[in-house]
């Protein structure tokens, strides 16, 4: 007999995950403060977790259905519900046993609209959790990200270098200017506050750090330091260890999009292959993390795409 | 009042590498209670609402040439700082080790009264005397004034009460797994619900208004009162399974402090060979009994015993 015998109703979602730590890493990367409310959106394609702050910063974690060992979707429309991000991560953490690959089942909704989790490896030692969910606030404000012009403006930089640069900018603090110049191709982070600090990524000088660069005109926007910092403050160590890159795109109105890739691959070497650069790689087992940061609108000349 | 003994190699090894680190985690200060046959380390037996722990050694498992005398049926008890005791023992051992292990490098331990510097009042100490190849070192660990006759009787009574066994005990194999689980659970809540069934289920659960997390370990070995596993409970959830067992009076459930539970798990530093959990009659406390095997066998070493009693915060038993 299976445990579904006592679950008469079809759940919106029942999925199994074999790399809990990967999911913990992915969700932790959008944790920039202690108490955060997150909205989970379910669809046949996967689960999206959305966190927002002050209408200036939004983060999304895309957990595609391929990340799961099994993914059964039984809902109509796109169910959404709110959870406390901190509790959700702490709760998942309980299932992640170091040095032991554990498989968990995630189910929604429970009899009282809870999010239900349980370990499924061993019938004689089971861990379970029920997380209270909330009705999310009105549709979260949409961060319409549109390209700034005909050519996309973006660069890709090693995640470790990006984090280091942003950490260093804590000293001047307050607000950080990001400048991109096509000739010579260069990205500059400039902080002015308690002092001045400028960090340049020259495309030709640091091809190993600045992996890609696309920009056809000088562009410059300011962002609040605390929001910029949130985009890298909790990058999981696996991202740094895997030597991954982060992509930053500046869209219309200066909206900054920061994208990270977090591996949710099963830690065993089975059914993974080693790519040419020597990294273990399971192509579809990546969680996408996106941050959207609104620029600061100061004086009369807010936008300066010159 | 006199106490003098030599610590054996086995005794040094047991205390230095295993028991003192474990007991130190239970609480810095404890009672050391010496009788004609036993040396016993006791936490929170006379005072306080913390975890009670009792580590009892037959004198042969730690000492040789064990001599004790007092007007109180040769019983002596005092409080001691385990951190200091551990430090003194460690450095005495390193000095003894210098001699290359030849006979005669024995580590003597005795009770003395000395005049500490800048003081006119003699104070009691537990003294370690070690003779190395070229040097001899004396280390004095300060202790409290020995307990009065009345206090010793109280301590002995508390110790006797603490020996009561729960009706049913279940055996947990993997203390480390339990510890790693409890470490993660600590963030979630302060109260831990512990349920034990007579057919070998141990169910731990933390519950707050926002979240419930639990772990259920099934089909554990049962000592004492035991019943058959009921039919058809496989399909139930852990919670309803435990609830119906409590209704049938085949299980008991208590709430203990998460901090206490985590603390009792530190006993794994003493490297026990197995652990048993049980709930005392009327749900008065949660008892954890650690067993040690005679090295190289699977026979219980009766000369060493260690157990903890966790105070119950809010009874909710059958």
UniProtKB/TrEMBL annotation, chain A:
Question: What's in the GO CC field?
Answer: checkpoint clamp complex
Q: Does the keyword DNA damage apply?
A: yes
Q: What is its main location?
A: nucleus
Q: Which family does it belong to?
A: Belongs to the rad1 family.
Cite the entry's keywords alphabetically. DNA damage, DNA repair, Nucleus
Its GO biological process annotations read:
DNA damage checkpoint signaling; DNA repair
UniProt name for this protein: Uncharacterized protein
Q: Which organism is it from?
A: Kingdonia uniflora
Compartments reported by the entry:
Nucleus
Query: Pfam families, from UniProt?
Result: Rad1
Automatic annotation (TrEMBL), chain B:
Q: Sorted alphabetically, which InterPro entries does this protein's record hold? A: HUS1 (IPR016580), HUS1/Mec3 (IPR007150)
List where in the cell it is found. Nucleus
Query: Would I find Nucleotidyltransferase among this entry's keywords?
Result: no
What is the predominant subcellular site recorded for this chain? nucleus
Q: Which GO terms describe its biological process?
A: double-strand break repair via homologous recombination; meiotic DNA integrity checkpoint signaling; mitotic DNA replication checkpoint signaling; mitotic intra-S DNA damage checkpoint signaling; nucleotide-excision repair; telomere maintenance
- Coiled-coil region: none
The reply on keyword Nucleotide-binding is: no
Give the signal sequence positions: none
User: Where does it sit, as one GO cellular component term?
Assistant: site of double-strand break
Task: Give the UniProt keywords, A-Z.
Answer: Nucleus
Q: Which family does it belong to?
A: Belongs to the HUS1 family.
The protein's matches in PANTHER family, at most eight in alphabetical order, are given as: CHECKPOINT PROTEIN (PTHR12900:SF0), MITOTIC AND DNA DAMAGE CHECKPOINT PROTEIN HUS1 (PTHR12900)
Q: What is this protein called?
A: Checkpoint protein
Q: Which organism is it from?
A: Kingdonia uniflora
């Amino acid at each position: 007999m299976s445990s579904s015998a006592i679950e008469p109703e079809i759940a919106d979602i029942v999925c199994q995950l074999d790399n809990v730590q990967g999911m913990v890493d992915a969700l932790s990367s959008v944790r920039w403060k202690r108490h955060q409310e997150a909205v989970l959106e379910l669809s046949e394609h996967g689960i999206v977790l959305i966190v927002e702050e002050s209408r200036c910063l939004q983060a999304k974690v895309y957990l595609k259905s391929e990340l799961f060992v099994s993914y059964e979707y039984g809902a109509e429309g796109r169910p959404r519900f709110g959870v406390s991000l901190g509790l959700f991560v702490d709760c998942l953490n309980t299932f992640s046993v170091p040095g032991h690959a554990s498989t968990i089942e995630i189910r929604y909704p429970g009899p009282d609209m809870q999010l239900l989790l349980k370990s499924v490896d061993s019938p004689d030692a089971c861990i379970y959790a029920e997380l209270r969910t909330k009705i999310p606030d009105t549709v979260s404000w949409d961060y319409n990200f549109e390209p700034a012009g005909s050519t996309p403006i973006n660069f890709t930089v090693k995640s470790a270098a990006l984090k280091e640069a942003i950490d260093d900018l804590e000293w001047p603090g307050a607000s950080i200017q990001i400048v991109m110049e096509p000739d010579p191709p260069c990205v500059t982070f400039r902080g002015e506050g308690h002092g001045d600090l400028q960090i340049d990524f020259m495309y030709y000088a640091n091809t190993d750090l600045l992996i890609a660069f696309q920009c056809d005109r000088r562009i410059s926007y300011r962002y609040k330091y605390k929001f910029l910092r949130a985009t890298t403050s909790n990058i999981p160590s696996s991202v740094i260890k895997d030597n991954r890159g982060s992509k930053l795109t500046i869209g219309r109105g200066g909206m900054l999009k920061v994208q990270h890739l977090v591996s949710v691959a099963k830690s065993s070497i089975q059914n993974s292959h080693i790519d040419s650069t020597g990294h273990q790689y399971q192509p579809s087992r990546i969680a996408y993390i996106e941050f959207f940061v609104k620029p600061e609108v100061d004086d009369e000349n807010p936008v300066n795409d010159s | 009042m006199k106490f003098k003994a030599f610590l054996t190699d086995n005794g040094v090894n047991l205390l230095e590498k295993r028991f003192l680190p474990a007991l130190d985690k239970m609480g810095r200060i404890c009672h050391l209670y010496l009788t004609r046959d036993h040396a016993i380390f006791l936490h929170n037996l006379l005072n306080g609402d913390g975890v009670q722990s009792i580590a009892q050694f037959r004198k042969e498992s730690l000492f040789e040439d064990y001599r004790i005398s007092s007007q109180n049926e040769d019983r002596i008890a005092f409080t001691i700082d385990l951190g200091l005791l551990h430090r003194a023992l460690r450095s005495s051992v390193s000095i003894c080790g210098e001699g290359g292990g030849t006979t005669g490098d024995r580590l003597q331990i005795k009770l003395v009264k000395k005049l500490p510097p800048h003081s006119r009042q003699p104070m009691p100490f537990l003294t370690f005397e070690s003779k190395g190849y070229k040097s001899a070192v004396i280390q004095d660990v300060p202790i409290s004034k020995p307990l009065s006759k009345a206090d010793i009787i109280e301590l002995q009574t508390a110790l006797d009460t603490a020996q009561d066994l729960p009706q049913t005990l279940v055996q947990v194999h993997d203390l480390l797994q339990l510890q790693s689980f409890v470490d993660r659970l600590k963030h979630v809540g302060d109260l831990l619900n512990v349920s034990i069934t007579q057919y070998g289920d141990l169910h731990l659960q933390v519950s707050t208004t926002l979240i419930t997390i639990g772990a259920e370990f099934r089909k554990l070995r049962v000592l004492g009162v035991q019943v058959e596993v009921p039919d058809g409970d496989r399909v139930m959830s852990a919670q309803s399974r435990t609830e119906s067992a409590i209704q049938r009076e085949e299980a008991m459930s208590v709430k203990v402090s998460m901090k206490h539970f985590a603390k009792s798990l530190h006993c794994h530093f003493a490297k026990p060979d197995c652990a048993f959990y049980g709930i005392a009659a009327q749900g008065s406390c949660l008892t954890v009994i650690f067993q040690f095997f005679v090295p190289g066998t699977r026979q219980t070493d009766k000369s060493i015993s260690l157990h903890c009693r966790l105070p119950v915060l809010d009874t909710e038993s059958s």
